[in-house]
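User: I've been trying to design a sequence by hand for this structure and keep getting stuck. Would you show me what you'd pick, starting by listing the structure so we're on the same page?

Assistant: Good idea, let's start from the same input. This is the structure you sent:
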């Protein structure tokens, strides 16, 4: 409810409209700067081609530039493919951390209700003891750092 009130007061005061105007102005400025940078790069490539063509001949310069750009494209794709596995691992770790945080928050939210119920402390202590025992088990069964199968858990 508090966020809705903030949004409504922001709309009423015109602050949201001003923020949208600033964001639109920044987007246009960055787009124009990017367009100018691409034009500059195009002219630099053209100048490099003219220099190479005058030095090595137009056919050799064209072949060299074509092969060079194909190599750059291949390197970009290779780096992307290599880093894709790392990104997937990071997403999985972040997802696991989020799931744990949601579970902890849900448990903390349910704790007062569980303590008031019929089972009282026993309802809470049983799973808590099981969780501590599992954590101790996991800590004591971690593979050695030099184990080649350490990353396959």
């Amino acid at each position: 409810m508090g966020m809705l009130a903030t949004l409504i007061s922001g709309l009423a005061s015109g602050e949201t409209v001003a923020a949208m105007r600033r964001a639109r102005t920044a987007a246009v400025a960055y787009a124009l700067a990017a367009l100018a940078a691409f034009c500059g790069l195009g002219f630099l490539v053209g100048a490099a081609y003219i220099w190479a063509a005058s030095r090595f001949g137009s056919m050799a310069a064209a072949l060299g530039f074509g092969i060079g750009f194909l190599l750059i494209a291949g390197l970009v794709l290779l780096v992307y493919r290599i880093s894709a596995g790392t990104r997937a691992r990071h997403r999985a770790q972040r997802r696991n951390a989020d799931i744990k945080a949601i579970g902890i928050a849900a448990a903390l939210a349910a704790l007062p209700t569980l303590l008031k119920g019929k089972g009282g402390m026993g309802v809470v202590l049983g799973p808590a003891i099981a969780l501590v025992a599992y954590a101790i088990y996991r800590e004591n069964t971690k593979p050695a750092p030099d184990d080649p199968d350490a990353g396959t858990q």
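That's my pick for every position. To get oriented when you compare it with your attempt: The mean pLDDT is 81. The CA atoms of residues 112 and 120 lie 10 Å apart.
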